[in-house]
Design brief:
The complex is a heterotetramer. Chain A is mainly alpha-helical. Chain A is built from 19 helices and two strands. Chain A has a domain of 210 residues. In chain A, a hairpin with a 4-residue loop joins strand 1 and strand 2. Chain B is mainly alpha-helical. In chain B, helix 2 packs antiparallel against helix 3, helix 5 runs antiparallel to helix 10 and helix 9 packs across helix 10. The longest helix of chain B has 36 residues. The N and C termini of chain B lie far apart (56 Å). By secondary structure, chain C is mainly α. Chain C has one domain. Chain D has one domain. The relative contact order of chain D is 0.15. Helices cover 79% and strands 0% of the residues of chain D. In chain D, helix 1 runs antiparallel to helix 2 and helix 2 packs parallel to helix 6. Chain D is mainly α. The chains are: A mainly alpha, B mainly alpha, C mainly alpha, D mainly alpha. At the A-D interface, helix 5, helix 6, helix 8 and helix 9 of A face helix 4, helix 5, helix 6 and helix 7 of D. Strand 4 of chain B pairs parallel with strand 1 of chain C.
């Protein structure tokens, strides 16, 4: 039952906000809908905790420990982002960057976007999964170009074309999957249901599946932002409004990776070798290294953190590629940590850039003086994302690296190199932003930084203590992914 | 393995309790942001008490059997394991003893600081202490790494306390960067150590069977990781930047204590976690250590910033310790247990001593900094007259660092040299060739240390003030004096009662080498192995010198007179003598600079003969930076440039990337 | 034991009293060799007496350290003289400090002298201190290496033990000891501020090292320092004798040997002093920056001595 | 028995699709491109209907109808209107010259056939080779997107990919489940709308639909 609430609330929210437009309290309503979604997600999660994985709507929806925590995470971050965007977008409007039409567009498609992601996560049908992913893309394209600046248009266009093509390839993969499945499950609705496929994955035709996986990987991998398919990501994440960047980096990438993993499970079952794993490790490693070196030359703060998203997605993909209970566990943990931390960073960065009136790091200085909370938020967030304990990101990196060391030692030099370069680059650029002197005036209004510290607090907590049931989920999920 | 109970029963629980206490203090200081008085007069003294307690716990733990607890925090399958054995206990004594003095000092030192920043500083300060103790307690890789990085991070924030200064910012950055890289390599070490079964507790690592190859890999990674923290050449570049940048008590903690945690880690991994040791590790460590020692002391001799000078001398001492570590390994792998015990004793002893005198010297410079606001030795001088307490107490530290009897610095050097004298027993002949040279290098380093200390002390405290402002220099407050007094007392006592200290060290030595170093002498005489062979009785030494001194004074006074006339110093027929004619710091270092010019990149600005206000600037920079680090940076830049080209901006190119990737994968998978 | 104490005191006092005599003897020899009319051999005593009677003149801003240093230096040298076996071999003090500690004592005295020199803050004092430390940082490890060679042969760093073994071994030629002896000579020349490294009689600021440090001292302080210098020379000579021609030093408890030992010692000292004076006369003072090379050579020889011991003698 | 010559027709249509893809690859004028696109859609619809009829998969009729409405009527009309509005129906030189493109295209086709070979072996459906052809069309359309430097041709290339996918779905697997079909169709529709909005936005910002203006975001 909760599942329908979960999907229904944001959908109605989208339509309602589209109609309501930008009358008063539109942002509040947005936040309210997100809150409701969060509650629904909470109930759903609770249900899952109580009575395990379940199938809803005669098999159209399937919720297990793998996607339920992603659902909870998505709903949570969506809510906090809505909270953050309330003052943020108002200021943007006051600065004259936005007009009412666009605010309406923003609010409604924000909800639609959330709905699409939740659908992608909860559906049991690989086809619908594809549809939802495409919908999520379409919902965000116009958000990226919300400012109508040439740069934002260009970014949105690249985002649209590249992800469109990518996702089209994913569709081809899905077709191949169906093609292989229908011989076993017969044509018609059930042949694309993941649960059914999972049941018969051993008999699926290997050649077709390997081909299908290539298409699925390239397709969804484009949305994950795996190098060399990542080219759209920095543009899209940097040029859109900050709340959008936050959800794109924090959530959409996860969802795409989720799709990849769902297919990996099937392919592994069918092939029986670790071809899929190796491919993912390759992509992951390439992304980590390439992103690290690209970070080094960034001047735009949001762009830099977009690249850092690529890096972390690469790390996660690498971990999933290694497979095994520990690595999968670590990857899932890292997904969570990255979402929380990266969105927190984007919140802080958003306020910082808004105050400085630019995204160029060279012009942002001495935050700690102008607004200590933003400064410390950014500093701690950065430290956290760079994998410094006691923040949770380290917990997962710890597991990933140590596992890599004794399973694939050849990969560790690259990881060491990339982590070092990324650390040097990001920290070296953030430190002068936070510390030092500045002539900028103090912030006129009180920024909404509760989300930042909420997220960072969670990350810190998870670094030191992971609640048993959460750990249990991760373990189940890791097991389900072939741990 | 007891679980954490509310009332601590065994040492490890006490230790953990104190860690929590420190954390509480740290966060309390955030609440006390308003009141500077409470912060300095309440929080820091409490923190100092905690340190004292830690020292006590360590002292108990030295003799007590190893105790351990498991905390309900950490990773799901890997809760924090804490364990307190003799090794950790020893380093806890070191930490607590030194940190007590430094924190007492700090409670006075920071009274001039504004409340807001001070609260933050106090938070990081106590986090730093807690982190270091947890490093010593950790009994699984995760807890260790968390504590390790908490230590690094908090010390980074301490270093950048005065972040308005760009140099300090860059120093902090360099520090945290190298610390992080080192930490990652430690991660890899543990990845190797856990040897397959994904269990990261030290207990399982102790049992893991290693092939020589993987063991060596682990050792090298550990040497790199811990060396980066300890300031082992060539990973030392951050140290002379970061230590001076921090507020003096923090510098004292970092140099005196934090570096030792790296030594602790090295010992822990090499002798405890790894269950095979290989000879060439020792040779490598010995070589690196000696290079570090000489490199450090040479650069210390040419510094003109007093804190930087001390930082370089820390590098030297770390080098000596690492060399001792290498020698221990050599003996140990050669089956010479007793000698390994001797060398290890020297190592631990020197670590302890260095902690005390380096802490003392750093806080001493702190008082100077407070009194004068000057760090550059070229503007100091003659302070002995304005701040006698600081001067005399610092003198003790300086003499100890110079390795002069009867103070503590000498004892450890004496032990180390003794160890070198035993090398003929070694089986590998090639070592017999190497060791004498090594001994010579240690002796050379010690002698140069004396040079450095004369320079440091003479230029800062003796002579005439090189700057008129110094005449207003004021003596340190009572809290500072108390702290310095404590540390100085440590230097003296450790020097006078080596026999006792060695007795205390016995459990540690036995733990690591399964051997005990028997002291053949009585309680007042130190005679390792056999009194026939070598002995040193600082008390007698001290007594004799004192008696002779006293007698001489009495005799001179009695037989002759004590008349004294005051006058100007002899001006050699040149009336315009002034303070600027004394040797500057650069001048004092000049001979060393001339001799060891090879290692330095020297930047000089000499004034032209006719300038009205002649200014001389000379800096001897670390050449390693230019031949090692700069190229790395360049390569990274170049690579990132190449990577940047991929991000071409043209959508067709991006499409081509996807296209080619697709085709490639299709070919790759279907063949 | 009590006899030991007595012996110890006797020897120490003897050393303290005889030291200026040795100095005087060396000066006399030099004078002869240079064809000057020699001062009486007791000249050093007269100088000391004169100095003790004078009023001390001290710079206005001299710190207590300045006045404390001479006593410290004197005490150190006295202790050093006490633990080097000159007459007898069983000395209660000697376990208190072995050869390494002996080097430590010298270093302690030197550091105090240098600090005292820097205390007044004249250009000379600092200059002298710097040069002194420059000389010492090479001489000290070299001296240590010399001792190491000896103690590697005798398996001990205890002077009495060393002397005993060296004295009572069946006569065998130790090439390592030869190297060590040469090194030791060079070192003691440098340490005692003699030509070619330093010139005890000059006051020319371009060349002086030791004198530059004690320029500010006068009267009793100067006297103590001069005496300490004499003691140092004495101690070094005694050391050289003990290490390289140790025959004739009284054994444990052989009180009967003492007179003979005394004679032997005096003879050796006279000879040694003469040799020193001779070598000083025939060699010329080197430039200051040659000094490190000179000492570097000494250091090298000492290390070579050790290496040779390792290669040939074990 | 009737199946066989349905089969022949569908195979013929497949060949036609391939041909059209090549034609698109070589087409310089945008208007021509749009026409070709419409033809492609038509061929697609017929093949879908045929397959539906011959195999009794009736939901394929919906798909066929959808295709007819969307891809043969709505979109081409929309594009023509656009082109007229922004009047830009003139020759556009592709990035790589036509003959080279053709050669690459042929290589791609061979590659695709080889790739599809083992799969079509297992295909239980009537049309074996269609999958290979579909794949070939996908790659060709992709190639076309790469070679075009204007917005509209690129989009048409994108839609051509969509078409070939649809063809694969219908011919090789008798169509996806209906829900999926509908979802896909919906997405395509929305996508096209979004594109339309885009065209106008781009036009009003850069007053041209040339992608050359959109190469600012890069690493400098």
């Amino acid at each position: 039952m909760e599942i329908y609430w979960l999907l229904g609330i944001p959908l109605t929210g989208g339509t309602f906000l589209a109609l309501w437009g930008c009358r008063r309290h539109a942002p509040e309503i947005n936040a309210l809908f997100s809150l409701a979604t969060l509650l629904a997600a909470a109930f759903l999660t609770n249900r899952i905790i109580v009575d395990g994985p379940m199938m809803v709507g005669n098999g159209w929806f399937f919720i297990d420990s793998f996607n339920v925590f992603l659902v909870a995470l998505t709903a949570f971050v969506a809510f906090t982002t809505a909270l953050f965007s309330r003052p943020y977008m108002r200021i943007e409007a006051e600065h004259g960057k936005l007009n009412d039409k666009r605010l309406r567009l923003y609010h409604s498609s924000y909800q639609i976007f959330i709905a699409a992601m939740l659908l992608a996560l909860t559906t049991n049908n690989m086809g619908i999964l594809w549809v939802a992913m495409e919908a999520a893309t379409l919902a965000t394209v116009l958000l990226v170009s919300l400012y109508r600046t040439p740069a934002s248009l260009e970014a949105a266009w690249k985002y649209f074309i590249l992800c469109g093509v990518g996702i089209a390839l994913a569709l081809f993969g899905t077709i191949l999957l169906y093609f292989a499945a229908e011989k076993l499950l017969g044509s018609g609705g059930t042949a694309l249901l993941w649960t059914h496929l999972n049941g018969v994955k051993a008999q699926l035709e290997p050649t077709v599946l390997s081909l299908a996986f290539v298409f699925l990987l390239v397709g969804y991998g484009t949305k994950v932002g795996l190098a060399p398919l990542h080219s759209w990501l920095p543009d899209a994440h940097a040029e859109g409004p900050t709340p959008v960047s936050a959800v794109l980096s924090g959530l959409l990438l996860n969802v795409a990776l989720y799709a990849v993993m769902r297919s990996k499970v099937l392919v592994d079952g069918a092939l029986g070798n670790d071809m899929a794993g190796n491919l993912m490790m390759g992509f992951g490693l390439l992304s980590v290294v390439l992103a690290a070196f690209l970070i080094k030359r960034q001047t735009d703060v949001k762009r830099m953190f977009a690249y850092s998203s690529i890096e972390h997605m690469g790390l996660i993909t690498f971990a999933f590629g290694m497979g095994g209970a520990v690595a999968n566990f670590a990857a899932l943990l890292h997904m969570t940590m990255h979402s929380l931390t990266k969105s927190a960073i984007f919140f802080a960065v958003g306020h910082a850039t808004q105050k400085a009136g630019t995204q160029l790091m060279a012009n942002i200085r001495g935050l700690i003086k102008t607004n200590p909370t933003i400064g410390w938020g950014l500093m701690l967030g950065t430290v956290a994302i760079l994998g410094v304990p006691p923040f949770g990101v380290f917990a997962s990196e710890f597991l990933i690296i140590t596992t890599a060391m004794h399973e694939h030692p050849w990969a560790t030099p690259f990881l060491l190199l990339a982590l070092g370069v990324a650390f040097a680059s990001i920290f070296g650029k953030v430190q002068p932003m936070v510390f030092g002197e500045t002539e900028l005036p103090k912030l006129p209004y009180q920024p909404a930084l509760a989300p930042v510290f909420l997220h960072l607090g969670l990350v810190l907590m998870l670094g030191l203590f992971i609640p048993p049931y959460l750990a249990a989920w991760y373990k189940q999920a890791a097991h389900l992914l072939g741990g | 393995m007891a679980t954490l109970s509310l009332f601590p029963s065994d040492p490890v629980q006490w230790a953990w309790g104190i860690v929590l206490f420190w954390l509480a203090l740290g966060f309390a200081s955030l609440l006390l942001q308003g009141s500077q008085r409470l912060l300095t007069r309440l929080l820091f003294p409490l923190g100092a008490l905690g340190a004292l307690a830690i020292a006590g716990v360590g002292a108990v733990g030295l003799s007590a059997p190893a105790s351990s607890i498991v905390l309900p925090i950490g990773l799901p399958d890997l809760p924090f394991h804490l364990r307190l054995d003799a090794l950790s206990a020893f380093f806890m004594v070191l930490l607590g003893g030194v940190a007590f003095g430094i924190t007492v000092y700090a409670s006075g030192y920071f009274r001039s600081m504004a409340a807001g920043p001070l609260a933050l500083l106090s938070l990081w300060y106590h986090l730093f202490l807690a982190g270091m103790v947890t490093v010593l307690l950790a009994d699984d890789a995760y807890a260790f790494m968390v504590a390790w990085e908490v230590m690094a991070l908090s010390s980074y924030f301490l270093v950048t306390t005065d972040h308005k200064v760009p140099e300090i910012r860059s120093a902090g950055f360099l520090y945290l960067l190298i610390a992080h890289v080192g930490a990652v390599s430690l991660l890899l070490t543990f990845g190797v150590l856990q040897g397959g079964h994904g269990d990261y507790t030290f207990d399982t690592m102790r049992l893991a069977e290693m092939t020589p190859f993987w063991a060596s890999a682990a050792f090298l990674l550990a040497l790199f990781g811990f060396g980066a923290k300890a300031g082992l050449v060539p990973m030392h570049v951050w140290l002379p930047e970061a230590h001076p940048a921090a507020p003096s008590p923090v510098s004292a903690l970092m140099s005196g204590v934090m570096l030792k945690t790296a030594i602790y880690g090295l010992l822990r991994v090499t002798f405890d976690l790894l269950n095979i040791q290989i000879g060439w590790w020792g040779t490598l460590a010995l070589a690196l250590g000696l290079i570090t020692a000489l490199y450090g002391v040479i650069f210390a001799a040419v510094q003109s910033d007093m804190k930087r000078l001390l930082a370089w001398s820390s590098i030297e001492n770390i080098g000596v310790i690492i060399a001792a570590f290498g020698l221990t390994l050599i003996f140990y792998t050669d089956g010479k247990g007793a000698l390994a015990a001797l060398t290890l004793t020297a190592l631990l002893y020197h670590a302890l001593n260095h902690a005390f005198f380096k802490g003392l010297l750093f806080v001493g410079t702190g008082s100077v900094l407070h009194a004068t606001g000057v760090r550059h030795m070229g503007h100091l001088g003659g302070l002995m007259r304005f701040m006698p307490w600081t001067a005399w107490l610092t003198l003790i530290g300086a003499l100890a660092l110079a390795g002069l009897p009867p103070l503590n610095g000498f004892v450890s050097e004496w032990l180390l040299l003794q160890a070198f004298l035993f090398t003929p027993g070694l089986t590998q002949p090639y070592l017999n060739m190497v060791i004498p040279v090594a001994a010579a290098a240690v002796a050379l380093a010690a002698a140069l240390a004396a040079y450095v200390m004369v320079k440091f002390y003479g230029v800062v405290f003796l002579g005439q003030p090189r700057d008129p402002v110094l005449h207003h220099a004021h003596e340190a407050g009572w809290a500072e004096r108390l702290g310095m007094l404590w540390l100085a007392a440590g230097c003296v006592l450790l020097g006078l009662f080596p026999a006792q200290v060695i007795e205390w060290l016995t459990p540690v030595v036995r733990l690591l080498t399964n051997q005990t170093l028997l002291n053949d002498g009585s309680w007042l005489m130190l005679a390792p192995v056999s009194a026939e062979r070598a002995s040193y009785a600082p008390l007698i030494f001290f007594a004799v010198v004192a008696v002779v001194l006293g007698l001489t004074v009495l005799w001179v006074r009695r037989v002759y007179h004590g008349r004294v006339r005051r006058s100007d110093p002899w001006d050699c027929g040149y009336p315009e003598q002034d303070a600027r004619m004394q040797d500057s710091a650069e001048g004092f270092g000049q001979p060393i600079r001339q001799i060891f010019e090879v290692f330095m990149k020297i930047e000089r600005e000499t004034p032209d003969p006719f300038s009205r206000t002649p200014r001389y600037r000379g800096a001897s920079l670390d050449k390693l930076w230019f031949i090692l680090y700069a190229p790395i940076a360049r390569v990274a830049d170049w690579l990132s440039q190449q990577a940047g080209r991929l991000q071409h901006g043209r959508i067709q190119w991006y499409l081509i990337y996807s296209f080619v990737t697709l085709i490639f994968l299709l070919i790759f998978t279907t063949r | 034991m009590s006899t030991g104490i007595l012996l110890q005191l006797a020897q120490t006092l003897l050393a303290i009293l005889l030291a200026p005599l040795l100095m005087g003897w060396v000066n006399q020899c030099r004078a002869w060799l240079q064809g000057r009319s020699a001062p009486p051999i007791t000249q050093p005593y007269r100088t000391l007496r004169k100095l003790f009677h004078k009023d001390a003149v001290i710079a206005h801003h001299a710190s207590p350290l300045f006045r404390f240093a001479p006593y410290m230096i004197f005490a150190c040298m006295a202790l050093a003289a006490g633990i080097v076996p000159t007459l007898a071999n069983d000395l209660p003090f000697s376990p208190a400090a072995d050869v390494i500690a002996l080097v430590g004592i010298f270093a302690l005295a030197r550091v105090f002298l240098a600090l005292a020199a820097m205390d007044i803050g004249t250009s000379f004092g600092t200059l002298g201190a710097r040069r002194e430390m420059l000389v010492s940082f090479l001489a000290e490890p070299a001296l240590l290496m010399v001792f190491f060679t000896a103690s590697l042969i005798s398996q001990s760093t205890e002077l009495p033990v060393i002397v005993e073994t060296l004295a009572h071994r069946e006569f065998a030629l130790y090439p390592s000891l030869a190297f060590a002896a040469v090194a030791f000579w060079m070192i003691s020349v440098a340490e005692n501020a003699r030509i070619p490294v330093d010139n005890p009689t000059t006051h020319l600021e371009l060349t002086m090292i030791h004198e530059a440090m004690i320029l500010e001292y006068s009267a009793r302080h100067l006297a103590l320092i001069e005496w300490a210098v004499a003691l140092k020379l004495f101690t070094y000579s005694a050391l050289g004798i003990a290490l390289f021609l140790p025959w004739g030093i009284a054994e444990q408890g052989e009180l009967g040997m003492l007179p003979l030992a005394l004679v032997a010692m005096v003879a050796k000292l006279l000879a040694g002093g003469a040799v020193l004076a001779f070598l000083e006369t025939i060699s010329a003072k080197v430039r200051l920056f040659r000094a490190p090379e000179f000492l570097g050579t000494a250091f090298l020889l000492a290390v070579l001595g050790m290496l040779i011991h390792f290669m040939l003698e074990v | 028995m009737s199946v066989t010559y349905h089969l022949q027709i569908v195979n013929f249509l497949a060949a036609l699709l391939l041909l059209i893809s090549f034609a698109m690859l070589s087409q310089r004028r945008i208007a021509g491109l749009i026409t070709l696109f419409a033809w492609q859609g038509a061929a697609l619809a017929t093949s879908a209907a045929l397959v539906g009829w011959s195999t009794g998969q009736h939901h394929l009729y919906y798909s066929a109808a959808l295709t007819l409405v969307l891809k043969v009527i709505a979109m081409p009309w929309f594009f023509f209107r656009l082109v007229r509005k922004l009047d830009m129906d003139r020759d556009v030189e592709p990035m790589i010259n036509i003959p080279t493109t053709m050669l690459i295209g042929i290589v791609l086709v061979i590659f695709a056939f080889n790739l599809a070979q083992p799969i079509s072996e297992l295909s239980g459906t009537v049309m074996r080779s269609t999958l290979g052809i579909a794949l070939a069309c996908v790659l060709l359309a992709f190639l076309m997107m790469i070679t075009r430097s204007k917005a509209i041709p690129q989009v048409i290339g994108f839609l051509a990919i969509e078409n070939s996918l649809f063809f694969a779905a219908t011919s090789a697997t008798y169509g996806m489940p209906l829900v999926v079909e509908l979802g896909v169709a919906l997405d395509v529709l929305v996508g096209v709308l979004v594109m339309g909005i885009f065209f106008f936005q781009i036009r009003e910002t850069f007053d041209s639909l040339d992608l050359k203006h959109m190469e600012k975001l890069k690493e400098r």
